[in-house]
Amino acid sequence: MKPEIEKISEISINQSVICIIGSDHIPETLALSKTEMQFANDRLMAKDDSVFINSYNKCIYLVRLKERTSHYKVREELRKSASVLLKRIKENNHSELVITSDNAYKGAIEDFAEGLLLSSYSFNKYKTKPETPDKNNYPSKLLLYGDIDDSDLKWLVDLSDATFFARDLVNEPVNHLNASGLAGEIKKAGDAAGFSVEILTKGKIEALKMGGLLAVNKGSIDPPVFCILEWHPDNCLNDKPIVLVGKGVVYDTGGLNIKTGDYMAGMNGDMAGAAAVTGVLSAVAKSGIPLHVIGLVPSTDNRPGGNAYTQGDIITMHNKLTVEIGNTDAEGRLLLADALSYASRYSPELIIDIATLTGSAAMTFGNQAIAIMTNADRKYINLLEESGNEVYERIAELPLWEEYGELLKSDVADLNNVGGREAGAIFAGKFLERFTEFPLIHMDIAGTSLLKKDDFYRKKHGTGSGLRLLATFLKRLAASYSEKKV
Ligand code: BES
Ligand code: ZN
Ligand code: ZN
Predict the structure, then answer these.
(1) I need a surface site. Which of 299, 346, 415, 430 has the fewest CB within 10 A?
(2) Ligand 1: which of 260, 357, 426, 449 to mutate, judged by most atoms within 8 Å of the beta carbon?
């Protein structure tokens, strides 16, 4: 369970404390006894990065910052050490814990708290009995003591809440969350955070001639949905909106080109892009970021049902381009393409799509980087890269050179939905590029959104990939606009 978090103005004598230290100096405020002090000093001299002291009525944990060549790596090490320490905290049954710092950088307490918060996630709503011993509620409260801005704390809470929400959505199996169910969850999130949600159902999607979304949906007995999320505050600083598009495939069997072997495992998470977009809008709306942001989520499952679309079908997309289906498992780009062309009606400043799109991106970067492809101005990419380092959801760019466009050719239609065996992630990016005239950043999160095992505070299964990155990007973009207006 997610611990509550609050700021405190003093530490009482019997509270257990985690103190992040930026040097070997042990602060007097911890009031350690002489022998405890000696022990802690010895451990620090022996180059231990964390020291645990079990006083008789409380515990003290010292966590020393690690030396790294860049500040953002120091920050990430701190988040990771929080996730390592969480095991010990649970063993010691702390329900409340103080987090403070001495000689560390500003923001260290928040970073450590973020590591603890994100590590405390688990998906156990379908377990009818708690595990024994049940450590799920430890710690239930984090008390932050130090120089912390209220707005930073609010951002931390909003972002981690949104991440929990997105992870929950990704982890839901399709028998509990089909496309309409996803739309319902998005609506609930909108009501809670204060952004508007419009849900287009099948009739409207047909009227809009979204041939990509409708083709993928043909094998399903559940109807598709197309959700429009909007945050448009009175004080917004951009004239044209930023549009976020999230892939909402609630289950990807591959369709008639069915996934074999173990490749279907986890494909209830093929809507991780949609979850990230919804989470970003939640965080941005709750924190009142002064930007006009629109989210588009096309959603369906992809199945080999009786009337399923087939290899060789030729479909007409929302923007009238025709596509030959080379493989029914390349479904994500079809519904994203419809959403990208739908986005034109907003004359967006920038479109960012986020999708579990290709095994190729996962093969290239593993789970360490989000693959991006873009034709947008470098100012956006630089900001995205900095935001990525800040939250440690790093991006790595693949090219969209025009030569790759050759692969898109079809004998019978305007383009094919698959290219050759090579450069699969780039091919998908080139395909999407054809469906918008507006600047595009395409983010492929196939490698980062679904983990087979825990990686520190990125818990196994849905990670919430791209959410903290995009929310931070938008926050910083708004800040850069307000600087210009001053
Ligand atoms: N949803 C998958 C991509 C995926 C793979 C996401 C692994 C997460 C983990 C996507 O729809 C897909 O099946 N892509 C195919 C495209 C191919 C048929 C051109 C792929 O990458 O194999
Ligand atoms: Zn697929
Ligand atoms: Zn897919």
Answers:
(1) 346
(2) 357
Element (H, E) at 5: strand 4-7
Say what the pLDDT of residue 170 is.
98
From ligand 1's centre to the CA of 474, what distance in Å? Answer: 28
CATH number at residue 263: 3.40.630.10
Strand partners, 442: 353, 373
List pLDDT tens digits, range 406-428.
989 999 999 999 998 899 999 99
CB contact at 8 A, 217 and 252: no
Q: Give yes or no: residues 99 and 208 share one domain.
A: no
Beta bridge partners of residue 42, listed in sequence order? none
Please identify, among 109, 125, 148, the residue that sits at the C-terminal boundary of a domain.
148
Domain hosting 340: range is 157-485
Distance CA 243, CA 251 (A): 24
CB–CB of 190/165 below 8 Å? Answer: no
Closest ligand 1 atom number to CA of residue 257:
18
Sequence-distant (6+) residues with CB within 8 A of 403 are none
Structure tokens at 130: 């708690």
Residue ranges in the chain whose pLDDT is less than 50: none
Indicate whether residue 44 lines ligand 1 (CB < 6 A).
Answer: no
Question: What pLDDT sits at residue 98?
Answer: 97
Instruction: Please indicate whether residue 331, judged by its CB atom, sits closer than 6 Å to ligand 1.
Output: yes
Phi first, then psi, for residue 136 (nearest 5°) are -60, -30
The per-residue pLDDT for 19 is 97
User: Beta strands of 161-256 (E only): which ranges?
Assistant: 196-200, 225-231, 242-246, 248-252
DSSP 3-state of 389:
helix
What's the pLDDT score for residue 57? 84
Q: What pLDDT does residue 420 have? A: 86
Measuring CA to CA, how many Å separate 62 from each of 47, 49, 88, 301?
12, 8, 13, 49
Q: Which residue has the tokens 């809670």?
A: 192
Number of domains in the chain: 2
Q: H or E segment at 441?
A: strand 440-444
Lateral strand order in the sheet of 322-324: 314-316, 322-324, 415-416
Cβ count near 238 (within 10 Å): 17
pLDDT of 361 reads 98
> 134 and 230, same structural domain?
no
Compute the distance between CA of residue 21 and CA of residue 18 in angstroms, rounded to an integer. 10
Segment 288-312, tens digit of pLDDT: 999 999 999 999 999 999 999 999 9
Boundary (domain end) residue, out of 117, 148, 179: 148
**Centre of ligand 1 from the C-alpha of residue 472, in Å:** 27
Strands 225-231 and 196-200: antiparallel
